[in-house]
Structure formats: structure tokens, C-alpha cells
Write the C-alpha cells for this entry.
Amino acid sequence: MMNKNESRLRRAKSTRARIRKLAVARLSVHRTGQHLYAQVFDASGDKVVAAASTLQKSVAEGLKGTKNLTAAAAVGKAVAERALAAGVESVAFDRSGFRYHGRIKALADAAREAGLKF
């Protein structure tokens, strides 16, 4: 019997394999009950180019909470700005096996609006 997290990681595996074949930068998202994390890895996948999370003071400033859609949008915007500053313009979106709705979708939309292409 697989638990929730093992199933999620199993779902994430094929996406990550496909992204590795594409050899493009990867925007990886992780969601917990309290927080949301986003990292942009370079094309080789072994170096973090940009990162943002609701734990960071600069991101969480002025937010009501860290586990809502506004917080997700703030993380998306921040990670996109940092990635562009590091010279990464287009990425592949890796939702880490989470369903594409709610906070994950809000983060993706905000990152697209901030100028990240995927």
C-alpha cells in the first residue's frame, strides 16, 4: 500500500524524466500544509538558479497568511523575477505530482505574468 506522498512522487517521476530529455530549466514547486516553495533548476538539473518560498521575509511581507492563493501568487512572481535576473527566460513547469489547481495553478499563473515562459 502506497501512502499519499509516495504516490505523488511516483506521479512526479515521469514528468521529471521528460523534462530531463528536453534539457531546459525546470521550475519545481513543493506544497506543504503551511508553506509553498518554488525553485528553478538549470538545464543540467544540478544547480538551483533561483528560489522563493513563503518562508522568506521578502515574499511573505504584507501577506495575510502563507497558505492561500495570494501567497502562492507572491511566490510565483518572486521566483519568476529572480529567474529572469539570473538569465533564465523559459522553463518547464514541474508540479511535483501535485494536481494543477488551487495554489499550484496560482503560482504558475503569477510566474507567467511576471514574464517566465512555459
